[in-house]
């Protein structure tokens, strides 16, 4: 079967009454789940696996895919309105989305997020349809050495995430690295920084840290500053209308991050979280006014929202073409494929074209549904800001506790959440940025694993890390991304 015939069959499956219905169910469920802090798509898809028994494989997977990208689409809502990331892939959206909401532009921020998500998701689906077989070979070619170089490139952006003091950014990044090493060593089984506490043997979940440093820290700040009149309840959600200047400012980030996010999503293990951070950082690096980032920049919100949704579609390339899950969510979807009797891999296109092309075609419909559903609901969703502050604080605490507890059903994680909430509060009042901590924690574990795998495979030869053109290219880009901003800063410094 040719590609065009397969695409036609995929659209036939997606545009059937049953296909449209289950796409709609999936994106609605995913959006609602994504809005709730801590309740990510992994749990939702795992719960839906028994529900799909007896269903056609193509229809069941269309619904699960809808839950996945619907959750990423909806996860920005709580990040923007409450500074409480719904899922890990929307942490970077809070950097500029929440400041916009604080200054009375919540409606505008949600509209930017919705449009950017739609563009990123749609462009990535087109790329997925055109280049999936070819990109699967790129995904396979990335070994431990290349992944280490990619993570190293991400580390050079830590200075971009500082709020002025590079020293403070490096300090928080170092602590983030140390936190990432907590738990059992993956190769030797040695416990590290666990203090003989069995609850720390598996390390600390990313969402526990993210919700602590952002949501609980914000709650602590609001409680302690409750008598500050400058922090009065925000009732004005602002206009949803975007001007021509706003669209012009969004156009560049949406175009660039649609491609970059998709390519990062293709790489197994990268996923929407890393794509959103790298998207945010790369836009800040090339911006003419990088000082506006972190203070309610349109580009700073459009970039991660475009990148994380583009990466969501890209993650289906290694899953469907190679049978390699690129994230925790796609790992659960791999299990769902096997339960439904579908074996992902190079032969999936020939053996089950309705499944392969049906999932891809359904993403077109899903992204349109998400935009149609979310834009009209923005005025109602944004009214959450009109809730009185005591009630709003209580809701944030309750959703954060429920979200963290649902990850492992371990009360110890609740204490860890509160601990990082206090840490986040002191970091805020002492002007230590939380973003470098989060980025270092994300990259730390993957970087260590890639380094040790590369050294083990090469017999301890360090030169194996720079023995191929891909790694060398990534190191060159890393050097340029570090040097160019320094040169720009020195040029812009006024003469004495």
Indicate the topology.
Blueprint: H1 3-14, H2 17-35, H3 41-51, H4 57-74, H5 76-82, H6 94-102, H7 106-141, H8 144-155, H9 166-180, E1 183-184, E2 191-192, H10 206-224, H11 244-266, H12 271-286, H13 298-314, H14 316-322, H15 328-339, H16 348-351, H17 353-381, H18 389-408, H19 412-429, H20 435-457, H21 469-492
Helix pairs in contact: 1-17, 2-4, 2-17, 3-4, 3-15, 4-13, 4-15, 4-17, 5-6, 5-7, 6-7, 7-11, 7-13, 7-14, 7-17, 8-20, 8-21, 9-20, 10-18, 10-19, 11-12, 11-13, 12-13
Quick recap of the structure?
This protein has helices spanning 3-14, 17-35, 41-51, 57-74, 76-82, 94-102, 106-141, 144-155, 166-180, 206-224, 244-266, 271-286, 298-314, 316-322, 328-339, 348-351, 353-381, 389-408, 412-429, 435-457, 469-492, and strands spanning 183-184, 191-192. Helix content is 71%, strand content 1%. A hairpin with a 6-residue loop joins strand 1 and strand 2.
């Amino acid at each position: 079967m040719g590609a065009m015939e397969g695409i036609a069959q995929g659209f036939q499956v997606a545009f059937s009454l049953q296909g449209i219905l289950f796409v709609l169910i999936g994106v609605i469920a995913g959006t609602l789940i994504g809005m709730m802090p801590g309740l990510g798509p992994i749990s939702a898809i795992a719960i839906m696996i028994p529900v799909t028994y007896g269903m056609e494989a193509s229809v069941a997977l269309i619904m699960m895919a809808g839950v996945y990208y619907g959750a990423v689409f909806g996860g920005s809502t709580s990040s923007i309105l409450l500074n409480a990331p719904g899922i890990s892939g929307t942490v970077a959206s809070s950097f500029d989305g929440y400041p916009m909401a604080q200054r009375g532009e919540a409606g505008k921020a949600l509209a930017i997020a919705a449009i950017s998500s739609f563009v990123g998701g749609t462009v990535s689906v087109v790329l997925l349809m055109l280049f999936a077989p070819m990109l699967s070979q790129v995904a396979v070619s990335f070994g431990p050495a290349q992944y280490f170089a990619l993570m190293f490139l991400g580390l050079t952006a830590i200075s971009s995430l500082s709020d002025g003091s590079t020293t403070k950014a490096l300090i928080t990044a170092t602590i983030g690295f140390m936190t990432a090493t907590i738990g059992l060593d993956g190769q030797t089984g040695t416990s590290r920084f666990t203090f003989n506490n069995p609850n720390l043997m598996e390390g600390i979940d990313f969402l526990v840290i993210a919700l602590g440093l952002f949501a609980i820290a914000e709650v602590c700040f609001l409680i302690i500053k409750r008598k500050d009149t400058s922090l009065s309840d925000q009732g004005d959600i602002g206009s949803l209308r975007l001007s021509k200047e706003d669209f012009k400012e969004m156009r560049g980030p949406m175009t660039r991050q649609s491609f970059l996010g998709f390519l990062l999503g293709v790489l197994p293990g990268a996923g929407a979280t890393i794509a959103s951070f790298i998207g945010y950082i790369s836009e800040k690096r090339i911006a003419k006014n990088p000082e506006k980032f972190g203070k309610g920049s349109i580009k700073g919100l459009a970039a991660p929202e475009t990148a994380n949704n583009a990466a969501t579609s890209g993650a289906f390339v290694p899953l469907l073409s190679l049978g390699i899950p690129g994230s925790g969510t796609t790992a659960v979807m791999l299990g769902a494929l096997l339960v439904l009797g579908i074996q992902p891999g190079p032969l999936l296109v020939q053996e089950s074209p309705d499944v392969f092309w049906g999932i891809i075609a359904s993403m077109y419909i899903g992204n349109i549904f998400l935009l149609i559903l979310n834009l009209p609901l923005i005025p109602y969703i944004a009214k959450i800001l009109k809730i009185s502050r005591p009630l709003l604080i209580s809701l944030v605490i309750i959703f954060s506790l429920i979200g963290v507890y649902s990850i492992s059903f371990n009360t110890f994680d609740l204490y860890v959440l509160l601990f990082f909430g206090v840490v986040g509060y002191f970091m805020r009042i002492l002007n230590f940025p939380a973003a470098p901590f989060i980025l270092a924690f994300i990259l730390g574990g993957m970087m260590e694993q890639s380094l040790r795998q590369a050294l083990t495979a090469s017999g301890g030869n360090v030169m194996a890390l720079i023995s191929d053109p891909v790694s060398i290219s990534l190191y060159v880009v890393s050097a340029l991304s570090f040097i160019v901003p320094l040169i720009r800063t020195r040029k812009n410094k006024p003469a004495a």
